[in-house]
Amino acid sequence: MLVPLYEAVYERLEVGTGTRLLGLGCGSGLALLMAAARGAAVCGVDPDEERLELARERLLARPGPRPGAHPGAPERAARLVRLGDGGLGDALKGTGAEAAGSGTGTGSGTGFTVVTAFEPLSAIGSGGGPSGPGDALSGRLAAAAALAEPGSPVVLAGWGPPERCATSTVLRVGARLADPMFPQLPLGGAPSPARWQPCGRDDLEHLAQRAGLRPDGSGRVACPFGYADMDSAVRGLLSTGLFDAAERATDPTQVRKEIAEALHPYRRADGTVWMENVLRYLIARV
After folding, report:
1. Average pLDDT of 237-261?
2. Pick the CATH number of 3-165+196-226+279-285 from 3.40.250.10, 3.40.50.720, 3.40.50.150, 3.50.30.50
3. Phi, psi at 63, each rounded to 5°
4. How far apart are CA 22 and CA 42, in angstroms?
5. Which segments constitute the Methyltransferase type domain (predicted)?
6. 260: which residues sit within 8 A by CB, 6+ positions away?
7. Which backbone phi and psi does 21 adopt, to 5 degrees?
8. Which residues contact 92 (CB under 8 A, 6 or more apart)?
9. pLDDT tens digits, residue range 259-278?
10. What does the DSSP 8-state code read for residue 122?
């Protein structure tokens, strides 16, 4: 579903054979796989070992650089590292990630040249509050910036305006079930761990500034979510992890039922489910 976002960012930043890319919150590795196919050396970190294992399988099975895109592009190294409680620096230390581009950020030519943080797509609400998930995220961004070459781009992403993101109405179901006080919390306030909220107009900029980064451009990308049928849509949305807290607070059957009800307006005559979304990304500089 997010391929248009990744492609737009990589095209704009000209990601290719000279790129050393660090993906924060890389999940199951689709964005890394696309960067590797363009010839980039990639390193990904994520706290979920099961998703990292899927990312490893994908990267090992990749056929090589995209045909015709980068003639003669060499096979590039890929590193995947679990992000533990010790922070990004500790996670990368002694893992061999240096071979994929980590460095000291001192202009030595060994640092990362692009950092992506697509993870805020599933955690926005983190940019404006004085505390909460945004603190941890800004800390990781600052740590990543220390591993990047000066002037390198750091990419943040978030949902666009709720009125242009049909999926937001469904994601609010998970927030409501997990946190009965969700409707009373002010937009931009410090979110609970289970809470989802749309990205405010300047949330990405605030997050970048808190991490010591300099905003340097942004863009919007259409990323429709399409599913073959209602069951596929429910399973796909559950796979995001945004409904885990709701399942713990209620029960899986109830969560599935309410997701299906929220999806009903987006079910088309042929049974497919289609939700139009606009996502926003910000490019900041180290």
Report:
1. 91
2. 3.40.50.150
3. -80, -5
4. 6
5. 22-59
6. 230, 234
7. -110, 135
8. 43, 45, 81, 98, 102, 147
9. 999 999 999 999 999 999 99
10. G
